[in-house]
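Thread: "does anyone have the structure for this chain?"

Original post by V.I.:
We have the sequence but no experimental structure in hand. Need at least a predicted one for the grant figures.
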Amino acid sequence: MPHCEYRLEGKIALVTGAAARIGAQICRSLHAAGCDVVLHYRRSADRAEALAGELNTRRPDSAFALQADLADMQAIEPLAAAALDLRGRLDILVNNASSYYPTPVGSVTQAQWDDLFASNARAPFFLAQALAPALRAHQGCIVNLVDIHAERPNAHHPVYSMAKAANAMMVKALARDLAPEVRVNGVAPGAALWPEHYFDDQDRLAILERIPLGRPAGAEEIAAAVLFMIAGTDYVTGQILAVDGGRSVQQ
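Reply from O.Q.:
Generated one for you, tokens below.
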């Protein structure tokens, strides 16, 4: 169990894309702080149920898995309603679910555009909108997982980069529109947990050479930044914290 200096007893959080990788670690970190967690997943039922079981072993009746395809607009409000039904409230929304793959100019399809914008921009916005009344009622907060490529586009990933740029603007826009009851912030990872079967050794070395700290982030480091935005400050909103080992300051 990760060490945690923040305390979130009595709170409940919905984390999208929570079955594995960064989303799973965010759930573990929130849970270690005393927060109950709702783990959203799309396809990874076994992983989500296993994680919920792991957390419930530590603290009974504290973790719940809910399935939804966030690319389907008709699934968003039912997911919000199901999450609220578990405790009759929601304090924290972490928009982590994301699709990521290359879309080189000249080969982009509308289906790819729709998929990348659905997971990285549309679903986070409409889920936040659906849950805004509940979050307002309990002085809650939203944290979006953005990306440093929202500001500096990733080669061969124009649609993903554009969708994350929309996500970054969402942080700022919702921070204004939901204030003062709800704080809205973002965490922007750089290289973190190499995508499975995606980069070869040469690609990884080229990326590491552009990171001043010389290594990718671990899932616990990304989760720690999310936890800070939730519990470490009450006077920060509309901000995006880069957790990239200094990569975004490289020229």
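V.I.: this helps a lot. The radius of gyration is 17 Å.
O.Q.: and The first helix runs from residue 21 to 32.
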